[in-house]
Records
---
Amino acid sequence: MRLRTKAFIGASLAGLALWFLSAPKTLDRNEWQNLAGDVARGEQVFNIGGCASCHMEKGAKDDARLLLGGGQGFETPFGTFYAPNISPSESGIAGWNTLDLGNALLRGVSPTQTHYYPAFPYSSYTRLGEQDISDLMVYLETLPPVEKANQPHDIPFPFNIRRSLGFWKLLFLNDAPIAENAEPRGRYLVEALGHCAECHTPRNALGGLDTSRWLAGAPNPEGKGRIPNLTPGGGLADWSEDDIAYYLETGFTPEFDTAGSTMVEVIENLSRAVPEDRRAIARYLKGLPSLADAPKP
Amino acid sequence: MNFKKLAILSAAAIAIGATAIGGGHSPIEQRQAAMKAVGGQMRTLGGMANGRVAFDDFAAISALEIMRDAAATAQPLFPAGTGEGFETRAMPEIWADGTEFDAIMGQLIANLDAAIAAEPADLDSYRPLFGAVAGTCKSCHEKYRAPEN
């Protein structure tokens, strides 16, 4: 065989392997058929998961928080992402079943088998429970439909090649727990559903979370200031569990200073959670390994 | 006047004095000192509201008065051009949104005046008055204050 032919066959095989590796991987349909959802529990999942914060109109209050037509823009080093419509309308998720929602949340894959961008925090949601997803699905179906077309993301080459996200997922998608010895409920709320690390953990050059600096604070991607260190080595050193739980409920620090910027939305959501869940989050944070703040830039 | 009240009054006088003289020369330094004085009272006032500190009507009203004076000191210290190039958490929206910021500051002072005038004698009458004050702090910080650096 001539060298050129060999090279061609080699390149083709490599290409095929890459194509296979980057393909969207979906869940097993059979495992998802017998789960019945509960609307009230789904509302809790919705609030702690913070779905409204990104998918409602920016700054919406009260009932307008439940109009999930999308459209908020998120500026990142990779371009600007626009939250899609997740209301039960034709432009949204009308016709989705629990398996579709499971694929979106656990695998970052759409019903048409394309990769979602990880601005949608599925790298945390990979650790969600199937029952929570079923509950969330039936709750989302009770919300008002919003007819509003999705705005395409504004992302430059090469990040606009969705297929490349298959490789990103191979590198960074991980459903193993981080704080292995933490109590399960607190760990689930912080690491999975509440997706705290998405903002409070710094990222590497490819946008993956630096787990060696887990929850130790990060630059603010949207402008001024830093997102605080949540480990006992940072500003929370002197906070008790009660202090953290009270903050998550009311937005007031032990000094009665107030929460700012995007944390305001998080508290809006967590104030609707049950008190035991806020305590579980507080216990988890107090149990984290102590990491010092990163040096100021 | 017993000793406790005298001590609180002296502390209040010192705090007001510090607000007036300790703020340096630029509006940014002055307003930061004033906001610090506002925040300093919130620990006492908030602790009473959530039951961590025993309610004391005299201490509460004293703290509200200090806070009112400090807020009134801070209000005019946000002139145009003091949002960039300094160590400040004040966000550019303060100046971009026209008079809204000034209106919230005015509301804070009005809520403080109302709380002082009501002379709350017990925790039940104090709590909603404190809630209104704290709510104004919160709504303004949400919109107009950047995260800490």
---
Amino acid sequence: MTKSELVELIASKQPQLSVKDVELAVKSLIEHMAQALSQGQRIEIRGFGSFSLHYRAPRVGRNPKTGETVKLDAKYVPHFKPGKELRDEVNDSLKAGY
Amino acid sequence: MSALTKADMAERLYQEVGLNKREAKELVEAFFDEIRAALSHNEQVKLSGFGNFDLRDKKQRPGRNPKTGEEIPITARRVVTFRPGQKLKAKVEAYAGTQS
């Protein structure tokens, strides 16, 4: 499912909102989440999961083309931990044969 | 800094998108519910500008109870993984640069 399919789906179940409204809202939601993470703020959604940042230590890497070594700075990467309900639902879908 | 919650997201939709409070709350619920429903039907979810939620099937593998040392198999399972998109990764890396 893509973002635009998600927008259509939500709009079809929210008859009081236009597709345009839902599209704006979903964009704003995603923007809000990205902004929070980029400021180091966690996101916690009960039943769904949480987003946080994981630290990556600085390291010396190598350019695979030239073999040249490059210093890579420490950085943070986004991480998602699924909540128990989502984990269980997804795992049940395997047992249900999807 | 406390974590971002659904209530914060609904408040933002009320303030900036002009939905009323009930619509804003319902929209945030629907957003996460529909993603969850898709994943629960083994359907990948791709949110451009943010990242992809992928599904991976894991085979059964040997495990161990860390307390007792007893060997117990870890059963086959399906798990959700999140792969952040380039845009999100770049934004988050920039955060690291503003620390220290």
---
Amino acid sequence: MSKKRLTALLVCIAVAIAGLGYLIYYYADLNNKSKIYNTLRQVVESETGSRQSQPSSGDLSSSPFAPAVSVDFAALQKKNRDIYAWIKIPDTVVDYPVAQSATDQSYYLNHTIEGKSGYPGSIYTENFNKKDFSDFNTIIYGHDMKNGSMFGSLNKYRDASYLNKHREILIETPSGERIYKIFAAVVYSNAYLPQKFDFSVESGRKAFLDSIFDNRDMNSQILKDISVGTDSKILTLSTCVGGQPNNRYLIEAVYTG
Amino acid sequence: MNRYKEKHPKRIIGIVAAVAVGIVVICAYFAVRAENRNSTVQITGNLPSGSLAVDSEGFGNTILYNGKKYQYKTNLKNILFLGIDKGESTVVKEIAARNGRSDVMILFTLDPAAKTSRMLEISRDTMMDIDVYDANDSFQFSGKMQLTMQYAFSSSARRGCWLAAKKISELLYGVPVDATVSLTMDGIAPVVDALGGVKITVPEDYTSVSPEFRKGAVLTLDGKQAFQYVHYRDISVTGSNDTRMERQMQFAKAFCREMSQKNSSAVIQKLQKAAKPYLQSDLDAESIQKLVQYQLDDEVLKVPGKTQQGASHDEYDVDDDALRRMVVEKFYVPVK
């Protein structure tokens, strides 16, 4: 074998091994960084007794007393003081701490809850939202992960039958539990909502609601069986749509008690 | 012998190298993809969350309906027909509704696989958010109005067609309108006469429209009669457009059949010539051929809903769930 050929062959093999190594590293790293969320869930579970026994049905009428999942925020905040709420959609994988950085709006877009850089990031809000959920529209962001974690399962809401079975969103805060009911799941433009709409005035709030209710798309669902107005307290779950960089997928829910 | 021996290891090296290159290419592809996912998380000014593209599968071209994945039948061709009543011009909040109304709206769907065509009728009274444009075609506001009004807020037939098609696509949850043909009402008589009349059987008693329209009468309508048949209605009666639409759909069906029977390039040319002064169309010759040749479905689809008496005129309220079901059934196929 000529020396040249041998060198070429060795280079090829080296690059192949490096490429394969990177792939393995990428997915192992992603897996590793995702573990923190299981750990935190266990923290929450062990400190509140069995969460599984809590009624998790989406039917509010059958559980007049809200399922109190008293999250130990003191324990969570020991791990990261930016954690200020916990979001759970019963019977789905959405079961995560919610964080807000006081200084860097996009920090948790690209950092896990324990501060590791990269995917899957965190479930988070920006600091234009108050941490007590008293705003008209509290916008919670999360990645649309291919493996379904974070907000990767929200795209199932494109199906009306799924939506009807998973309409309740629970938000735990240090001051108690808040229950929201989903009224829309829409394919939306990628407009930055707090910039596009002035939520501080009624006309801005109305314009936002109109833009949701006017949405007609086979992948959008609107339910008009619950009253939503400019005085409501709304939760927006915002995630992206792969292959559609100009669109985002929004879940809209209204505070019910 | 020596030469043969030499060849052999060379071949092996060649194969190993080829496999190695293959692996490099595959790895490079995945590595770049994984890298892209990370690098697309970019921060642009104060738009942190609007600009992220992620480790996301996306919707592809699929929708989810009752737990199943569906895909739009991309081979369909949807042709919107608009019958324009130039009639009187009205004013909405100081903006003139000036270009006439689309009183007849039929979406023809050509299915090249089955070589069939199908009609979907859309009520002029369908209540939607209509986009209002001023005399310079610049957008002013949107408001709940009858769908027939969308065409009116335009300054040309071409633009009116585009506005109506856009709105109807929105009504149908994004079903695309591939071409639009509009004809003003005064074009009906010359076109029907050019075809040599249209034969119909009067299905109900329509003597209120004209004495010869008795139930069961078999008539070959000439241009003037055809115009009466599709245009007349008593606006003092709630739902008068519904019975008129029945006549319009029946007439449209009969017209298409007549055209298919007389299918010759001479007739088509004669029709086109007669229609020209009243016509706006971006339909290609091939689709015209298909419209004439394909078998027209007997079943006429209708946007589900019901007519109610509004403050000043009839309003047609669409049953969104039923419409969505119809769109899935008629325009989508399950994905395996």
